[in-house]
Specification:
There is one protein chain. The chain is an all-alpha fold and 502 residues long. It has two domains: 3-150, no CATH class; 168-499, Neurolysin, domain 3, CATH 1.10.1370. The chain has helices at 3-33, 40-58, 61-72, 79-95, 100-123, 127-145, 154-162, 168-192, 207-221, 257-276, 279-283, 292-306, 310-324, 333-340, 354-372, 381-392, 419-435, 441-446, 451-462, 470-478, 484-499; strands at 228-232, 238-240, 246-250. The chain has a three-stranded mixed beta sheet, sandwiched between helices. Helix 8 (168-192) runs antiparallel to helix 15 (354-372) and helix 12 packs across helix 17 (419-435). The longest helix is centred in the N-terminal third of the chain and has 31 residues, at 3-33. The protein is globular. The N and C termini lie far apart (71 Å).
């Protein structure tokens, strides 16, 4: 049998495997967006049962034999097929020693943990989530320990899973560079910056108007509306089941309209990535293999570099005033721009400004590094969270809901995900500087024409993401490895000008 014939057999198996994966995802989407509270537990059980079938398919002898043979000898396969085999084998190698029983138990624990987190957040009581989180950490250590290839620590393995090549040493250096320049700049802004008008930020905007604004923003970003759905959830996210079924979620607050505006832009960035990977990669079972930081690069790019720019605010302000029904008629474009860029220490990561945002990520990085590696207990998390917010942001955390329960990530074994946001911030500015060499980005933004940005990203960024490691990816786009200096220079220039600092 030729390798192409083997690939054809493997591809047929992958068609079924991916169908089950989409079903698991759709039940999960339903659980987070529209299932009644009393139905969440059953939805989690359904996901675990579907996961059981998925496990059987990905551990069947005919599947693993084909995968191992093609991994050992891929002569005659196309470059996309070779890369698909590489990704599939890496995934298989990390899970091949996990029994069906353990896989099912872990899925069930993860799905139940979401319900526990939701209840704990609503009750403002970490103790309601503590045991579920402890169970997930135990499972994470267990499954990492079963791998043939071991990293220096369990958390190093988590980082490598999220960002190939990622290590504690690399991220410690990255966050040290951020801390060295962001902390003093934030202190200067707080102590010396000019006052910025923001009284209108809490004015009530009806939810139907906010939903209309969301749909307008998604269309402006260049998303195919016929392949898109918009819904709401407790903690916004975006998922997809192929390029023709992309699902964006947001959360509306009547007294905080900007929350939805920037959440929508952020999630729309993820959706653009999902809709615009090459169809060849989807057909070849190679799509959706980019790292989390690659994905967060695009979401943070649209949320901040584009969305919070003066050019963009100037363009969308009239539409916002129209939809809000006169609520902001006394607010100038410049006042709106300054207000949505106000920098100050705050409690909630998803509502944080660009300048302080990475400090929120540092708190989470340091805590999950410690609890995954067994350096602290789960019981210590709330107090250490408060301590680190006091140290890095100079604020007191009043309760668990606004503290260690605010994010959904730790209810889904996403240990190691948080650094992706900070890395995405840095990658984004580096990519913007390269994009600006090809056309006047913000002149297009000022006209409300974001399609050249989407098209440039499709050609240079989306097309290669699933075929490269993070380091290969950023070098192919910009000609150099990750350079955090671009991001830090951007922050200093923007906030010095905004706040009138010398």
């Amino acid at each position: 049998m030729t390798n192409q014939q083997k690939w054809k057999k493997l591809s047929a198996l992958l068609d079924e495997i991916e169908a089950y994966g989409r079903c698991v995802g759709k039940v999960g989407f339903d659980m987070e967006c529209c299932a009644p509270e009393e139905g969440i537990e059953l939805a989690g059980e359904d996901m675990a049962l579907l996961g059981k079938r998925l496990y059987a398919l990905t551990h069947a002898k005919r599947y693993t034999a084909l995968l191992e043979e093609l991994h050992a000898d891929c002569e005659g396969l196309t470059p996309v097929q070779k890369k698909a085999v590489e990704h599939l084998y890496e995934r298989y190698a990390k899970t091949k020693n996990i029994s069906a029983k353990l896989d099912y138990e872990m899925d069930l624990a993860s799905n139940k943990a979401y319900g526990a987190w939701l209840k704990a957040k609503k009750a403002n009581d970490f103790s309601l989530f503590r045991d579920a989180l402890g169970e997930l950490i135990r499972y994470q250590r267990l499954v990492v320990g079963l791998r043939d290839e071991q990293k220096d620590t369990v958390y190093d393995a988590c980082l490598d899973d999220m960002e190939k090549g990622g290590t504690i040493a690399q991220l410690d250096a990255f966050f040290a560079a951020l801390r060295a320049r962001i902390v003093p700049l934030l202190r200067r802004v707080t102590a010396e910056g000019k006052p910025i008008r923001e009284d209108f930020l809490s004015r009530r905007v009806p939810i139907p108007a906010q939903e209309a604004m969301s749909r307008y923003l998604l269309e402006l970003e260049g998303l195919r509306q016929s392949a898109l759905v918009l819904m709401t959830t407790e903690h916004p996210f975006t998922d997809h089941y192929g390029p023709n079924d992309v699902r964006v979620t947001t959360h509306y607050h009547e007294d905080s309209f900007i929350s939805n505006v920037f959440t929508t832009l952020h999630e729309g960035g993820h959706a653009l990535f999902m809709q615009n990977e090459p169809r060849e990669l989807y057909a070849g079972h190679c799509a959706d293999n980019m790292s989390n930081a690659m994905h967060e690069t695009i979401s943070r790019f649209y949320e901040n570099l584009i969305g919070r720019s003066e050019a963009f605010i100037g363009f969308v302000a009239p539409r916002l005033r129209e939809l809000a029904g006169g609520v902001f008629d006394d607010v100038s474009d410049r006042e709106l721009y300054e207000a949505v860029n106000v920098a100050r220490p705050s409690l909630i990561r998803t509502e944080a400004d660009e300048l302080s945002y990475c400090l929120h990520i540092m708190v989470r990085y340091e805590l999950e590094k410690a609890f995954v590696n067994g350096e602290i207990t789960v019981d210590e998390i709330p107090a250490l969270w408060r301590e680190k917010y006091r140290e890095y942001l100079g604020i007191e955390v009043p309760d668990d809901a606004q503290g260690c329960l605010q994010d959904v990530h730790w209810s889904s074994v996403y240990f190691g995900y948080f650094p992706s946001y900070a890395l995405g911030n840095a990658y984004g500015v580096q990519i913007l500087r390269r994009m600006e060499k090809d056309f006047d980005v913000f002149a297009a933004v000022a006209r409300g024409d974001l399609l050249p940005i989407r098209d440039w990203l499709t050609e240079h960024v989306f097309s290669i993401a699933s075929l490269t490691t993070p380091d290969e990816w950023i070098r192919a786009i910009t000609g150099e490895g990750l350079n955090v200096g671009y991001y830090l220079d951007y922050l200093e220039e923007k906030y010095s000008a905004l706040y009138g600092l010398a």
